[in-house]
Amino acid sequence: MGNRESKEADAKPSSLSPPRQQTSAETVDPQSSTPSPLAPAAAISSAPRPAALGEWESPITSAFITEKAVRLGSPQLRASDGALFWLEGRPDEAGRQVLVMRSPADGSIRDVTPGVDSGFNVRTTVHEYGGFEYCLVEENDRVYFSNYSDQALYVQDIGGQQAPSPPRLVTHGSVDRGERFADACWDATRRRLVSVSEHHRDSATGAELPPDKVVNRLVAIDVSSGAATPLASGADFYAAPRPSPCGRWLAWVEWDFPNMPWDCTRLMVAPVGQDGTVGQPVRIAGGSGGRTAAGSIKAAEGAAAAAASSGSTTSDGNGGDGNVVDSNVNDDGSAIQQPVWSPDGSYLYFIDDRTGWWNLYRCRTPTSQGFQESGGKEEEKAGEGPKQEVGGSGGSGGGDSASRGMEGGWEAAAEAAESLSPMQADWGFPLWTLDRRSYQVLSDGSVLAVFCDPRVAGTSLALLQPPSQPSQSGAGWQLTRIDAGFTHFGAPILTVREAPAAAAAAAAAAAAGGSGSSGGAVGGNGKGNGGLTIAAVAASPSRAAAVVQLSVTSAAALASVGPSDWLEVRKSTGSQLPGGYLSVPEALSYPTTFDDQPTTAHMLFYPPTNKDFTHLPGSLPPLLVKSHGGPTSAASTALSPLLQYWTSRGFAVADVDYGGSTGYGREYRNRLRERWGLVDVQDCCAAAEWLVADGRVDPRRLCISGGSAGGFTTLACLAFRRTFSAGASLYGVVDLRLLAEHTHKFESRYLDLLLGPLPAAADVYEARSPLKHADGFAAPVIFFQGDQDKVVPPEQAVQMYEAIKSAGLPTGLVMMAGEQHGFRQAINIRTALDGELYFYGAVLGFKASMPGDLPDIKIDNLKPPQQQ
Asked: Low complexity composition bias: which ranges (predicted)?
């Protein structure tokens, strides 16, 4: 599985970025690795003082972390002028999310969303986790967005230098959060939005639907009337609807229970008629052998025509289609994501893990008599649709000519799909939110992408350039890693803008047999005067997340850029991290077991760091193991003030990528199949035990914490093993059967693959649920829970807390008012952080420095540490 999947028993450290020696007269801005001198000289601290580990005083307080801090995401560049938009989640505004804009003219930044008193909050809850809550429309300078309180779509005018207009309601029928929208894009041919829709209310009674009755589909939204017309339905889930540049095709990703989007999905393409209806879809890639395709094109024509006449294409939702043309490509259950059309529409790109790794592929858009898209649009009269439509006359979208063309075209194109990145690296990422945009196709045919190479910690930015002649299996494609100075890209999302003249020149050069411009230079440090502008939310171990932007004269110039060429537009942190407190992680591979066989797992290890203190002679630091959520997720290499909070107080931190984490290929990701609560527990315990054996941490003070699925792993480690001395669960799962029966639709069958389907696997759910084994706990544990959590209902935390309390162990429960799955409000973020430290100090016997405004944290059954 690549170099980090070594079967050797010895751990293999590799530093992400070795910490340089710092003097006491330096400060480190988390957004920059460049030190800045402290003025005045009197502020220079004396030599470090010996003090108990865990009791070190630190300027990185919970108030410091949350003060003016924001969550950054979903950057988009407007093609017309290069204006940059992004979302900010603001803890000091009760966690609400706002759309922000940077002007390309003068660099000024302003909110697009009205002030906090307006009640607007740019957030969607499709799949509960949402993703890409807004859509920019170039032709009329508008932005459409989802509002959290009612989940309706609104529109604002954002043209010119004038202030954005007040939001106007678009989807009038979306009341009481009945229909939710996400991942919308603009269909320029028909001047409408195409979006993922999730329907939560009975159309007849208005009653809220249970999770298994919630309907997901693709819809077209008339922006004048707000009417949502179904385009595709019948599968259990949909993502990434993408109209082709000429409007004749619609590509999307869909999947069915019990799969999650990283298990098995299908890439579909369908013709779109002149009236906007969608015809018979073809499966291009993905799927599994259980999905039955139409026996022939002709046999499906009746169903396709019926679906087109109703404006929707349907499947039975159980893996079989009556009207789907199946290309029979890649029938092994691979997971497809992120379909992207090339700017001229001649290729459809996608990410597929058919080889065991999420690699990038493309297939040529087919041509046949009656329709063509390999050379861009045919001439059209202003204001009219395509001159000759795919679906035949009348706009049915499912006529004979389209079916015959698709049979001879898309099937052949799918069979000839070209791999552009055949390597043991992941170019895709788990689709927890509907906002993945990890690559962009440029006009010259090259691809700018973020990918995860297991040999290098974190994610990398790279340029893929095509060969002069078409090839199979990626032969001749040139991969150039770009020195951006970042190891983490948020979501990840890349957004690019090619200046019209530069795009035209690059396309012409590519058409002539080249690969675009052969030279170029940095075009102004992100100030928008280059031919190519790139933006992202990015970070590194020494730089906290920020919205960053780069402008260059051409794609070829990217090979010569460096970290200093990126413009930092907006920081996620409100304050500068003081120098001498930055802990830089090591990427470690350490020994563990899988199915009783020796193997390796991975972690990021952060040593305690504080320029003002040193440890007492003979002492070792307490350890905090962080078990990430998901469980299909991964540890981040971004500078996290939340982690530095611990290391600056004398803790060591191990951020564990247990088996099941992403970034190491499908085989590693699938280690959790039917083994959740076993593999993750083993790997977290093995990480702590290896660090003890290596002499890095105190074996008597081993702590573990995690949120959501990571909270479950934390509790399972405490219930079934004796490795850890204390733990903290943040909105963690405690009863697996209760989770399966009462969680939301998106994850309602997730446990079928992690544990086994019910009722057959009922004994497994019982055996691995921490709540059912409260008598197995021997270490103290505290719970932090949102009282409005729909992913992990708060009743789970209450039941677990009561069980631990009844067992006589030190425990506590802090219920966060107004919070859902994760904490967004500044006061609750602070309480959870300080409360966890306070709890560890109380049960392990050290006195940590606490803020004066910490709410009362009640600890039941607390005894002197020596009696615990």
From this structure: 32-46, 323-335, 401-415
Print burial letters for 467-489: b (CB count within 10 Å at least 16), e (below 16). Answer: eeeeeeebeebebeebebbbbbb
The answer to whether 102 touches 84, Cβ cutoff 8 Å, is yes
605-627 confidence digits (pLDDT tens): 999 999 999 999 999 999 999 99
Task: Give dist(CA 805, CA 810) in Å, integer.
Answer: 7
Residues ≥6 apart with Cβ < 8 Å to 432 = 129, 630, 632, 633
The alpha-carbon radius of gyration of the chain (Å, integer) is 27
Q: What's 540's DSSP letter? A: E
- Tell me how crowded residue 681 is: count the other CB atoms within 10 A of its CB: 25
Write out pLDDT tens, residues 520-563. Answer: 454 444 433 459 999 999 999 999 999 999 999 999 899 899 99
How do the domains of the chain map onto residue ranges? 3-66+576-867, 241-432, 440-572
Own/partner long-range contacts of 832-837 (Cβ < 8 Å, ≥24 apart): 832/730, 832/784, 833/62, 833/65, 833/642, 833/645, 834/62, 835/782, 835/784, 836/705, 836/728, 836/782, 836/784, 837/645, 837/646, 837/649
Q: Residue 69: how many CA atoms within 13 Å on its side-chain side?
A: 27
Pairing of strands 613-615, 49-51: parallel
* Cβ partners under 8 Å of residue 39, min gap 6: none
Long-range contacts of 830-837 (CB under 8 A, 24+ apart): 830/62, 830/63, 830/65, 830/66, 830/854, 831/784, 831/855, 832/730, 832/784, 833/62, 833/65, 833/642, 833/645, 834/62, 835/782, 835/784, 836/705, 836/728, 836/782, 836/784, 837/645, 837/646, 837/649
Phi-psi region of 263 (alpha: psi -120 to 50; beta: other; left: phi over 0): alpha
Instruction: Decide: helix, strand or coil at residue 76.
Output: strand
pLDDT tens per residue across span 633-645: 999 999 999 999 9
Q: What is the pLDDT of residue 500?
A: 79
The torsion angles phi and psi of 360, rounded to 5 degrees, stand at -95, 135
How many whole angstroms separate alpha carbon 511 and alpha carbon 488?
Answer: 34
CA atoms within 13 A on the CB side of 726: 25
Q: Which residue has the higher pLDDT, 474 or 803?
A: 803
Contact (CB, 8 A) for 58 and 649: yes
The structure tokens listed for 541 are: 């171990």
The correct CATH number of 3-66+576-867 out of 3.40.50.20, 3.40.50.1820, 3.10.310.70, 3.30.450.40 is 3.40.50.1820
β-pair partners for 27? 36
Q: pLDDT value at position 177?
A: 59
With CA atoms as reference, report the closest residue to 410 among 292, 288, 279.
279
Please name the residue that has the structure tokens 């202030």.
163
The pTM of this model reads 0.84
Which range has the worst mean pLDDT, 140-144, 177-181, 441-445, 502-506? 502-506
Mean pLDDT estimate for the chain: 83
Please state which of the ranges 31-40, 67-76, 170-179, 756-765 shows the lowest mean pLDDT.
31-40
Residues in a beta bridge with 111: 100
Q: What are phi and psi of 297, to 5 degrees?
A: -60, -45
More confident residue, 577 or 663: 663
330: left (phi over 0), alpha (psi -120 to 50) or beta: left
Query: What pLDDT was estimated at residue 852?
Result: 86
Does the structure show a pLDDT above 70 at 28? no
Nearest alpha carbon to residue 552 among 590, 578, 521, 587: 521
Structure tokens at 150: 């009612």
* C-alpha distance from residue 188 to each of 140, 191, 243, 386, 437 (Å): 11, 5, 9, 11, 20
Determine the average pLDDT of the residues in 363-367.
89
Q: What are phi and psi of 180, to 5 degrees?
A: -115, 150
Q: Where are the beta strands (DSSP E) in 474-607?
A: 478-481, 488-498, 532-540, 543-552, 567-571, 586-594, 597-606
* DSSP letter assigned to residue 862: -
Contact between 489 and 536 (Cβ < 8 Å): yes
